[in-house]
User: Fold this.
Amino acid sequence: MQNDGFIAVFDSGVGGISVLRSLVAELPHERFSYFGDSANAPYGDRSEGEILRLTHNHVETFIDHGAKAVVIACNTATSVAAASLRAAYPDVPIIGVEPALKPAAEAYPGGNILVMATPVTLALDKYHDLAARLDKSCTIHAVPCPALAARIERGNLDAPDVRELVESYVGAYRGRVDAVVLGCTHYPFIASAIRDVLGDVRLFDGGAGTARQLRRRLAAVNELAPDTEPGAVEFSSSLDTSEELALYRELFSIPL
Ligand code: DGL
Assistant:
């Protein structure tokens, strides 16, 4: 882990790399340290108490190593732990992600919007508060996809079983929705399987919005890296094998 002034970005596993891509595109001069808790993924199957314990451990480590900001690149962990992490570390900007329902509803007033996410994200108040604030003309179809993040953790995302799993969750919505909100940061990596199942629908994820929020928060505390800095990205994982880190690097650079 880098010594100081870096931005820690974490997820239960590989999913947050989809957010990291947006962060680096928005803030190319920053130093990012990505941590995937792949040994404990998926968080969507865990209790709130376990997610709180895991996320507090990670953030304590990042801050001990000198992180200037933390991005919770996981909808599930944000829903469960963002408020308590912010209360524990009030001096460090802690940015979460949330399902991109608002941009989807703004783009399709009166439309049918499908939300795919983990069961934990869809069960918690944060999601229900977000949905309650939307334009009432939209119809929201929220579909929990319990096994999807765990399957994405295994890589080999062009394999037929990925499409079959997506079909089993959302095949019934083919031709019935205008937009799909990817409410789990793992799902952008299977965008092509989702399009294969649902046809020509627009996909929304929270990456770009999170990146803009990180920029605003760093600017507010005068912590943006100068544009003379080269920027850097490093990866670590609780599943510390060379295969796992190779998968992280592959997902960071594959075309989506
Ligand atoms: N990538 C995560 C999210 O955005 C978590 C998936 C999981 O670990 O269940 O919700």
User: Anything to note?
Assistant: The radius of gyration is 17 Å. The beta strands are 6-11, 31-36, 67-72, 94-95, 112-117, 139-144, 179-182, 202-204, 232-237. Residues 11-12, 15, 41-44, 74-76, 118, 121, 149, 184-186 surround D-glutamic acid (CB under 6 Å).
